[in-house]
């Protein structure tokens, strides 16, 4: 770039359409990241103002004033007070909304006091006629000492004019529009004399705010005894706010008129329905069901497609690349690993589609209003409902959905407890274990016992989530201001562009942020499962073939072949009897012989891979942890499955199938094989009632999903919380399973 | 003396005083200041939070906050 870009900061209250303005100015030329060390989103975009002037546009978090009460707002102040910051703006655009101009101007007057060239953008100007609002722009510009851009980001009105004003920023006045220091003349005079070089309002912000800037200044201020008690400061801030409102009211009395006979809007009516004590909840739960439905079942269509495509791609690459370690790495490690990341995209996209529609329309604030009292008891927010419910499909998008919770402590608790809810990856594990240990009986005539068990597991997960929230709320000592002031914005039709950008952004941040961790661990797990050090691993094929020659196949597999062959024989006989085939007894014998060879080869391969898995690193690991899991009722084979299911819980079944050397595609076979598994010493069944229940509880509580850990790491911006989550959930799962197994056995 | 928490739904009132130590600054900045008007729009099921219109800002606040705002009723509920 030949010359520097102009730096523009977008500042404004929440719900003024600031993000729409940002999207209009920049299109898709955006970069989303985090501010260093914190989880506040940093959005930067690029805009071409004129033929040869480009601007870097920073979309600052929404804030009501420069008196920060959240990390988001701290970001705004720290930037505006630090002239050396790389993002310090050449020009500030304060985005306001025409219907809430009075309140929005409070922030504007504060920005003006910082003597930054400032433009006032009045958004949603297309609604002025409808609302009967008229503005005296020249008067307002004169009083507020600024240039005003009337815009409508929804209808793309006035954006070009705004660009011109930004380009002409040098003509803007930097004079404050009122003298706020008159609230305590003596105090501010002294302050001015003590620090003649500094801006008075900046000093005042340094005194009143709990944010990071120049340690030195702060110390100096304290030394020169300008510090005041919190209560005194707050009183002065109140005076300051009143002073600002007096000024704003005086200006608006002349420059802003509203014809109150015009439409009042649909807000009151909609509020009455959506926040009704009965209908409000009915509507909310209907919406939740819709979200759940879409994340759980609609997204399964693209997910199945992704699953199949990656499986095909893996086998294609295996066939067409020259055999060797590199090919194995690609076809068994990297491709399935990437598939394991991509598979989450449909769920994430669906969930965020709904969430951004709910946010954009203004409905989410109403949900908080309805749910706040109930959720507050458990240290959660009204907004935690959405992550908790979506967690029933998958914890990954659910944890990402917690971003909408402003209070950090409430958000953290929500992130930590969401994995307890029964996600869809637990279902196959539950299904097969329940089928094994719970009799398929009905009680009271209608209730199926197996179905009841499944329901109990769902309730258990939800109860555990709420219970841990309650405990965490007591334990976590996080300073986060517990104020609760939630604006109820006007209802608006969501803008397609905003929703689309949001969905793309969230998906991208998952793929980039959590994706690499998931991919890395999948490759490690693949490596451990497909490599071994021992002599036995290297010669698995010979060893197993020799063993089969000497001792025959395992009893289960031999029975499987015998049964399949006799079924095949009966079927052939039948068709001959019914004259479907015209074949003689020689043909039948040939067919049986061919079938026998086919089955034998299949089973032989299964036994080889079973042996290999046993002797691989993961197998060694599984045997290594046997003493630890023995008290839970698991043998080393289950141990291996528990380890591999860190990739995803449903892998449990595939691993067991592989280690029992049965076909992993045939669920009935896996089930009967699990049923047949006995303890080699005692001859008792391995999957008895006690072990089954112990496993069910283990899978209900244990943190067995690297993808969830990866997203927790991403969302909390530290390894501390995923590690705590892993240790807490897994210890709890271990303890519960231990106790239950020891009681039941 | 009435507080905001004692208003009935639909009642309008004038803010007389706010307890500076317990009220979030954010609420003051939204215009919840002595001399401004406030209307109680709705109360959530279970009696908390309250939905108010203050100084043309539509906000939900918790009952504990509403108790710290002293008001004088100016307009009975319709």
From TrEMBL, chain A:
Binding of Mg(2+), residues: 23, 26-27
This entry's Gene Ontology molecular function terms read: ferrous iron transmembrane transporter activity; GTP binding; metal ion binding
* Record-listed GTP binding positions: 12-19, 37-41, 59-62, 123-126
- Where found? Cell inner membrane; Cell membrane
Q: How does it sit in the membrane?
A: Multi-pass membrane protein
- FeoB-type G domain location: 5-172
- Transmembrane spans: 278-301, 334-358, 378-400, 412-439, 451-472, 510-528, 686-711, 723-744
Matches recorded under InterPro entries: Fe2_transport_prot-B, Fe2_transport_prot_B_C, FeoB_GTPase, G_FEOB_dom, Gate_dom, GTP-bd, P-loop_NTPase
Which cellular components does GO assign to this protein?
Answer: plasma membrane
Main localization, broad class: membrane
Q: Keyword annotations for this protein?
A: Cell membrane, GTP-binding, Ion transport, Iron, Iron transport, Magnesium, Membrane, Metal-binding, Nucleotide-binding, Transmembrane, Transmembrane helix, Transport
Q: Which family does it belong to?
A: Belongs to the TRAFAC class TrmE-Era-EngA-EngB-Septin-like GTPase superfamily. FeoB GTPase (TC 9.A.8) family.
| Protein name, per record | Ferrous iron transport protein B
Automatic annotation (TrEMBL), chain B:
| Source superkingdom | Bacteria
InterPro entries associated with the record:
Fe-transptr_FeoA-like (IPR007167), FeoA (IPR052713), FeoA_core_dom (IPR038157), Transcriptional_repressor_C (IPR008988)
Write down the Pfam families for this protein, in alphabetical order.
FeoA
User: Which Gene Ontology terms cover its molecular function?
Assistant: transition metal ion binding
UniProt keyword list: Iron
Kindly give the SUPFAM superfamilies that the UniProt entry links to this protein.
C-terminal domain of transcriptional repressors
Q: Which residues form the Ferrous iron transporter FeoA-like domain?
A: 2-73
Q: What is this protein called?
A: Ferrous iron transport protein A
This chain's source organism reads Flavobacterium microcysteis
């Amino acid at each position: 770039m030949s010359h520097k870009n102009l730096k523009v900061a977008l500042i404004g209250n929440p719900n003024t359409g600031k993000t729409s303005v940002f999207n209009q100015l920049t299109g898709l030329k955006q970069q989303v990241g985090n501010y260093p060390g914190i989880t506040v989103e940093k959005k930067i975009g690029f805009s071409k103002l004129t033929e040869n002037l480009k601007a870097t546009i920073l979309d600052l978090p929404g804030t009501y004033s420069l008196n920060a009460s959240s990390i988001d707002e701290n970001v705004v102040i720290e930037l505006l007070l630090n002239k050396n910051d790389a993002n310090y703006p050449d020009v500030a655009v304060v985005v306001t909304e025409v219907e809430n101009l009075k309140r929005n101007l409070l922030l504007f007057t504060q920005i003006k006091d910082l003597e930054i060239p400032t433009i006032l953008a009045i958004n949603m100007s297309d609604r002025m006629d409808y609302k009967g609002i008229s503005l005296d722009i020249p008067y307002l510009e004169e009083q507020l000492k600024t240039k005003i851009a009337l815009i409508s980001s929804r209808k793309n009105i006035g954006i070009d004019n705004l660009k011109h004003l930004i380009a002409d920023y040098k003509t803007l006045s930097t004079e404050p529009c009122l003298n706020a220091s008159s609230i305590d003349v003596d105090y501010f005079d002294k302050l001015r004399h003590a620090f003649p070089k500094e801006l008075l309002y900046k000093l005042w912000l340094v005194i009143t705010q709990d944010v990071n800037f120049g340690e030195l200044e702060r110390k100096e201020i304290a030394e020169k005894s300008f510090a005041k008690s919190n209560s005194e400061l707050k009183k002065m801030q109140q005076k300051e706010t009143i002073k600002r409102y007096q000024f704003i009211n005086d200006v608006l009395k002349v420059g802003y008129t509203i014809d109150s006979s015009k439409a009042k809007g649909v807000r009151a009516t909609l509020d009455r329905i959506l926040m009704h004590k009965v209908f409000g909840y009915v509507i909310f739960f209907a919406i939740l069901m819709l979200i759940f439905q879409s994340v759980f079942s609609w997204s399964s269509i693209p997910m199945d497609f992704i699953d199949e495509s990656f499986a095909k791609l893996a086998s294609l690459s295996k066939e067409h690349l020259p055999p060797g370690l590199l090919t194995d790495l690609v076809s068994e490690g990297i491709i399935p690993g990437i598939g394991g990341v991509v598979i989450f995209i449909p769920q994430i996209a669906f969930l965020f589609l709904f969430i951004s529609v709910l946010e954009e329309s203004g409905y989410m604030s109403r949900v908080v209003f309805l749910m706040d009292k109930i959720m507050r008891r458990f240290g959660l927010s009204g907004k935690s409902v959405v992550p908790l419910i979506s967690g029933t499909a998958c914890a990954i998008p659910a944890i990402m959905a917690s971003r909408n919770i402003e209070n950090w402590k409430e958000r953290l608790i929500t992130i930590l407890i969401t994995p307890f809810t029964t996600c869809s990856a637990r279902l196959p594990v539950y299904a097969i274990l329940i089928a094994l240990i719970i009799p398929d009986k009905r009680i009271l005539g209608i209730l199926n016992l197996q179905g009841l068990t499944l329901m109990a597991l769902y309730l258990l997960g939800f109860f555990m989530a709420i219970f841990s929230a309650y405990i965490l709320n007591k334990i976590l000592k996080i300073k986060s201001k517990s104020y609760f002031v939630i604006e109820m914005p006007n209802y608006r039709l969501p803008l397609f562009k905003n929703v689309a950008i949001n969905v793309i952004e969230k998906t991208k941040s998952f793929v980039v942020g959590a994706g690499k961790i998931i991919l890395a661990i999948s490759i490690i797990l693949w490596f451990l499962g497909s490599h071994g050090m021992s002599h036995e691993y290297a010669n698995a094929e010979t060893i197993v073939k020799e063993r089969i020659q000497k001792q025959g196949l395992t009893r289960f597999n031999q029975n499987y072949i015998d049964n399949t062959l006799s079924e095949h024989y009966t079927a052939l006989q039948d068709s001959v009897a019914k004259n479907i085939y015209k074949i003689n007894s020689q043909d039948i014998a040939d067919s049986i012989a061919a079938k026998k060879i086919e089955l034998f080869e299949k089973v032989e391969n299964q036994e080889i891979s079973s042996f290999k898995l046993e002797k691989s690193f993961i197998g060694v690991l599984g045997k290594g942890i046997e003493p630890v899991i023995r008290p839970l009722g698991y043998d080393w084979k289950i141990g291996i499955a528990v380890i591999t299911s860190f990739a995803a819980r449903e892998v449990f079944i595939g691993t067991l199938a592989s280690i029992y050397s049965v076909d992993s595609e045939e669920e009935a076979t896996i089930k009967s094989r699990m049923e047949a598994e006995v303890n080699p010493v005692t001859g008792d069944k391995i999957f008895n009632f006690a072990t089954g229940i112990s496993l069910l509880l283990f899978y209900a509580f244990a943190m067995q999903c690297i993808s969830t850990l990866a997203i927790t790491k991403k969302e909390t911006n530290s390894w501390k919380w995923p590690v705590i989550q892993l240790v807490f959930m897994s210890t709890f799962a271990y303890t519960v399973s231990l106790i239950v197994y020891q009681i039941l056995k | 003396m009435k507080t905001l928490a004692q208003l009935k739904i639909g009642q309008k009132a004038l803010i007389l005083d706010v307890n500076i130590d317990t009220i979030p600054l954010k609420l003051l900045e939204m215009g919840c200041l002595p001399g401004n008007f406030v209307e109680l729009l709705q109360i959530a099921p279970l009696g908390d939070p309250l939905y108010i219109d203050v100084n043309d800002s539509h906000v939900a606040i918790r009952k504990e906050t509403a108790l710290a705002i002293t008001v004088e009723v100016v307009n009975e509920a319709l």
